[in-house]
Amino acid sequence: MKIGIIYHSESGNTRHVAQHLAWACDGHLIEVYDRASYSRITRFLMWCKKARSEEKTEIEPATIDVTDYDLLVFGSPVWAFKPTPAIHSAIDALTGCQGKKAIAFSTHGGRPGHANETFKQWIESRAMNLIGVIAVHQKDIENEKITREIISLVPSTKS
Predict the structure, then answer these.
(1) Beta strands at 59-60 and 33-34: parallel, antiparallel or unpaired
(2) Segment 24-60, tens digit of pLDDT
């Protein structure tokens, strides 16, 4: 099974989880970068405002061809109780995603809010089949039990 792990990370927590998952499941990492430039003072406020209103942003890479993957995994930090505009744009930028199985995870420092439901909406709007979603608190990034829970969402490669 070929697994594509598409994620956006700012503090490194989401990247860390994505790397653990890639190592455990032999997945291919695709990091998405937000190309918007804000000052350090306004960055967090602008990003939260955009996340809350489910806006998209300009990303790199601008398009992501996932035709060759059997399973897609999406990862994002939670900002204002939602996944980031960058991962929203990444899901929108996919080609070859229709009918694919998908998993989503978010990392957060407080509460995940509506992140799981929002991921579900975005993924299913692109005709993908969401088979699992999980939120990981930043204190649990190194928790082996949480890592196993995420890995358990990945269908067996023997099927």
Answers:
(1) antiparallel
(2) 999 999 999 999 877 767 777 777 778 887 888 899 9
Verdict on whether the full-model pTM lies above 0.85: yes
Domain count, the chain: 1
Residue identified by tokens 């990247």 is: 15
Confidence of residue 158 (pLDDT cuts 50, 70, 90): very low
Domain membership flag for residue 139: yes
Question: How far is residue 120's CA from residue 71's CA, in Å, rounded to a whole number?
Answer: 15
CATH assignment of the domain containing 40? 3.40.50.360
**Residue 155 preceded by cis peptide, ω within 30:** no
Query: Which structural domain range is residue 42 located in?
Result: 3-152
Beta strands 94-95 and 64-65 are parallel
Query: Which residues on adjacent β-strands are paired with residue 77?
Result: 107
Token pair belonging to 20: 């653990």
**Inside any domain, residue 158:** no
Q: What is the DSSP letter of 70?
A: S
Q: How far is CA 63 from CA 58, 95, 145, in A?
A: 11, 7, 34
